[in-house]
Amino acid sequence: MSTLNRPAEPMHRDDAHRSTPKMARKVLLACGILAALLYAVAHDALAAILYQNYSPFSQTISELGSIGAPTRPAVTAVVLIHEALLIAFGIGIWQSGRDNRALRVTGALLIVYGAIGPLWLPFPITARGEIATAGGLNDVMHVVLGAVTILLELSIIGFGAVALGRWFRLYSILTCATVVVFWAWSFLYAPALAAGEPTPWLGVVERIALGAWLLWLAVLAIVLLFGHQTLGRTSSERGASVAKVGSPNSTR
Asked: Within 10 Å of residue 52's Cβ, how many Cβ atoms?
């Protein structure tokens, strides 16, 4: 019988069973791209719609969720969705690193990062100019959470750099340097912010630091989705592939 007329072979049950977790893992990894896009776009979009006098060039991102800010309810929703997407992304990374310990640590740390995120909500910063007189525990905790968040970001980037190839390692080093330099720069504005004085370019400095982190997350998701097809396979499957390549019939 001609092969052209041969009916297509049905998908075996085992093949269908294996394809399901692969698709689920891809969906989880895609959450990393969605999380980065949401956080990068939503805050300034909300400010443009709801906060008439807000300046993304000179005001902090945290001021969008400050006490009394018109954007606080919407920012709260964005934060919760963003952190849920990050947790899903962390699970996808964990599943992608079956035989890659550094990648599994990256996923675990990202899950912790996402779980800590909602803790920002009970501790909004005091409105600009009122910190010196009305500031309290919420402002102290805001600073503490900021420091913890930065340390987690650097740890996640560091383990992710170890887990993947050389070019991604170099890119991660540049990202770490950008995050450290620009967040440190933003802290220099603290006295002026507390006193309610102008803080020119503070918003830009913060957005560069945050943007470098969000871009790194999106690039990591893309690499795991399209650049490392063997990460989700077990060691036995990879061993079988190597054996097949090395067999005498592999060139036929």
From this structure: 8
